[in-house]
């Protein structure tokens, strides 16, 4: 291998997130709904029959499949499957900043307009119910933010003798912000709340 080949290889490389090929990738949609001349955000309550996070509040979305050409396609597909609507009912879909979680997951959020909310027929195997919150609520309400500490625990056979400091190595303390909104006896938190907060800050001065 010569120097020119190495430099050509690097020059033709498209940067991505290191290690992201092993990450789980998900896409979600923030559905905007016009009701009584007011913009609302639609949320789902996950079915109690689901194995993961039953009863929690979320946006339509899910894992990106091989059949999805893009992250946007995945967000739209999941929304049609969960809300029982056709693709033609979802308009003006645009990306927000994507999120990398400390748990090996990348989430690609999108925002889009649902043309006719009366067409929604939630899939009961995935969705327990849907509800709407006026966008003005989020514009006028700051989320409550709490810290979650993440402990670093090296496995038993970790070679501490190979690193400077050994047993006394000072691992960096990791913290994660968890966001909470409370509306009409419903608690919106976690990634869903963080995505809302990002969206609201993005449009606040519109």
TrEMBL record:
Cited Gene3D superfamilies: Nucleoside Triphosphate Pyrophosphohydrolase (3.90.79.10)
TM spans (from-to): none
Cofactors, names only: Mn(2+); Mg(2+)
Molecular function via GO: coenzyme A diphosphatase activity; metal ion binding
Nudix hydrolase domain: residues covered: 23-156
This protein's UniProt keywords: Hydrolase, Magnesium, Manganese, Metal-binding
Pfam families found in the cross-reference section: NUDIX
CDD domains assigned to the protein according to its UniProt record, in alphabetical order: NUDIX_CoAse_Nudt7
Protein known as: NUDIX domain-containing protein
